[in-house]
Amino acid sequence: MNLLLHLESILSDFRFMFNSQNFALFQAFIYGFITHTREGTLTQLYQSSASQTRYWSFPKFLSRGKWDPDAVAGHLMKYLQAIFPQWVYVYDQTQALKTGTSQWGLHFFRNFSYQKHRVNQSKFHYGHEFGALGLLCATPTQWLLFPVWVKLIVPQTVGDKGDAILKRICSKIPHGLILFDRAFARRKVFEMLLGFGHHLLCRAKSNAVFYRLPNPPKHPKPGRPKKYGDRLNIRRLRYKAMSIGNRDYQITSHLVRTKMCPVDVRLVVIRTRPKPSKPYRYFLVFTTDLTLEIPQIVEYYQHRWHIETAFRDLKQEFGFSAYRVKSRKSINRFVQLSFIAASLTKLIFEMPHPTQKPISPQEVCEKLGIHWYHPRKLTQGLRVAYLKAQITDHRFSTSSTENTNSHNITTHVQQDTTLPFDKAA
Does the first or last residue of the chain, that is N or C, have fewer Cβ atoms within 10 Å of its Cβ? Predict the structure, then answer.
């Protein structure tokens, strides 16, 4: 199966968003993100893409190119939603670097530290922070998360703070269910999401308080009606056994109210006990979508962790944190192209040509010469390695010479077959 032709056909759907030169550079960036072998800096992407353009076309494409990264991310999202009918959003934040020395380029942003009332809060960020949106899709065999949208967070700028980035992204995506970690369990965030027509599924913090719905009074009295009922004690609730995904749980569910959210929510509590001598542990998730069943709520949040592994793959395989550009505009475009390359790498393996069978993990390991590893499903590292092998074979076969041992036969040199992005100016 030739995945390069399949990748080229998917990239052609983005053709209307670029002019001819920028589209060739867009393709070169995607191939460069896939085939680079080291950190993934701009110079290494240029060398790995095998583009015939000059190097300065690459940084100019990021800084002065006339194309909209938000529009490209939106088109990718619509493309994925048309292929996979069952999907949910996942939102989270990440840092380019968490420990060690400060990241290159951080000093170009003036006063990159938190300050409140002109008092430094003693917080220093080693790397830039990003707000990212992923699309969790149900394929015929498994759940896959496609990284779709990413934005740089700058705490000192009102329009680029963490909540402002989330607001900007949620205002441009179709209505749906968004999964959050418990760090986003804030009333300000929930009011903003509900205002845009989205539903949320979030884990509750350890100190979260939930209340029962108030009972109607037998003798109504003048004044504002009671909004919250009795406080919910999760230790005294009745739990029942339930099997979800070949695992047994002790679960209870109630329709409750909380001060974190302006509307009623469905609370699901999972009770576990690691040892009989240990006390129970409680895992709480809640959602504003009251139509979801308990197995769906548990399954959705179980797959929320895919965005954490997607961040790891982006930093290891697609050069997410290895950019060497200065401006905020260039950084946003660079990491957005990294997200697109990672999503398309997954997509071409999960959506093969209708007349061809999907590539199995055994075929990939056999192609790469791996005999000691027998995975049950494809990982992102195996996908990237398989694509690199196909691109290497393609370049070698199109640039090889046909020589003969006879001295009387004229040697014919096969002409190079250029990749689709080699014609950029």
Answer: C
**Helix, strand, coil percent values for the chain (each to nearest 5):** 40, 20, 40
| 148 found inside a domain | no
Rounded Cα gap, residues 74 and 77, in angstroms: 5
Q: Which pairing describes strands 87-95 and 129-138: parallel, antiparallel, or unpaired?
A: antiparallel
Total count of residues recorded for the chain: 425
Question: Could you tell me the CA-to-CA distances from 227 to 76, 205, 215, 253 in Å, in that order?
Answer: 43, 22, 10, 20
Domain that holds residue 383: 361-399
65 inside domain: yes
Instruction: At 389, list the tokens.
Output: 């092998």
Please name the residue that has the structure tokens 């909209």: 68
Residue 265 domain-assigned (yes or no): yes
Give the residues of the chain that fall short of pLDDT 50.
Answer: 110-112, 114-115, 120-124, 400-417, 423-425
Say how far apart CA 194 and CA 15 lie, in whole Å. Answer: 35
Straight-line distance from the first to the last Cα atom of the chain, in angstroms, rounded to the nearest whole number = 31
- 86: tokens are 């069952």
Query: How far apart (Å, rounded) are the C-alpha atoms in residues 172 and 198?
Result: 11
Return d(Cα 411, Cα 194) in angstroms, integer. 71
CA 343/CA 149 separation, integer angstroms: 11
pLDDT at 102: 55
Q: Is 317 inside a domain boundary?
A: no
Residues 335 and 366 in one domain: no
**What was the pLDDT predicted at 408?**
42
Q: Please name every residue paired with 286 in a beta bridge, in sequence order, or none if there are none.
A: 202, 267
Q: In terms of Cα–Cα distance, which of 23, 41, 22 is closest to 32?
A: 41
- The Cα–Cα gap between 272 and 293 comes to 20
Q: Do 62 and 10 sit in the same domain of this protein? A: yes
β 199-203/113-116 pair status: unpaired
3-state class (DSSP) for residue 98:
coil
**Residue 305 carries which DSSP code?**
G
On whether both 355 and 367 belong to a single domain, the answer is no
Three-class HEC string of 31-73: HHHHHCCCCCCHHHHHHHHCCCCCCCHHHHHHHCCCCCHHHHH
Q: H helices within 119-161, ranges in order?
A: none
Q: Is residue 185 a contact partner of residue 208, using CB atoms and an 8 Å limit? A: yes
